[in-house]
Each structure stands twice: as C-alpha cells, then as structure tokens.
C-alpha cells in the first residue's frame, strides 16, 4: 500500500530532523529523501507554497548522495535542515 502524501511528508520530516539532531546520515537516507521529494513534487495534493522547499531538499539529497563526506555535508546544512522542517510543518 503506497504512503499518502501526508505520510510521505512526515517520513521526510523525520529523516531531515534526524540529520539535524544527529549531524550524520547515510547515502540510503539521502536516496530515500530523493524518492520522497520526487513523489511529493508530482502530487497535485501538495500545497504549491511548499514546492520551493521540496526542491531545495531534493538538491540537498542529490549533493549528499554525491559528496565524499556526508557528515560534513549534513553539518554544513544545519540551518537549512531546521528551516525546511519548519516549512514542512507549517504546510502539512
């Protein structure tokens, strides 16, 4: 059974919150973030105002997948992670 867009947003927020609080993550998590964001961006039920945030998160995941030092990438995006989670909470 596929996840609803609401469930996808909750999962996305959970992963990003874990990255923010733990200052570390995995390539698999970045790949999951990428898949979630792709799915959300094509979903007509998603508020258009959250799409710019989702696009930023997509680029964050892409950079995370391709970076030689994922923990450093996560650490350098702490402010962004906090803002993205806050944005998602206000539109979910």
Automatic annotation (TrEMBL):
Q: Which InterPro entries match?
A: YtzH
Q: What is this protein called?
A: YtzH-like protein
A Pfam family for this UniProt protein?
YtzH
């Amino acid at each position: 059974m596929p996840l609803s867009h609401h469930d996808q947003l909750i999962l996305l927020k959970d992963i990003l919150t874990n990255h923010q609080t733990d200052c570390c993550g995995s390539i698999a998590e970045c790949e999951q973030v990428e898949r979630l964001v792709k799915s959300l961006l094509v979903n007509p039920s998603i508020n258009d105002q959250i799409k710019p945030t989702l696009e930023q998160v997509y680029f964050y995941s892409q950079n995370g997948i391709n970076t030689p030092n994922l923990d450093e990438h996560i650490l350098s995006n702490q402010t962004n992670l906090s803002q993205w989670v806050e944005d998602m909470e206000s539109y979910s």
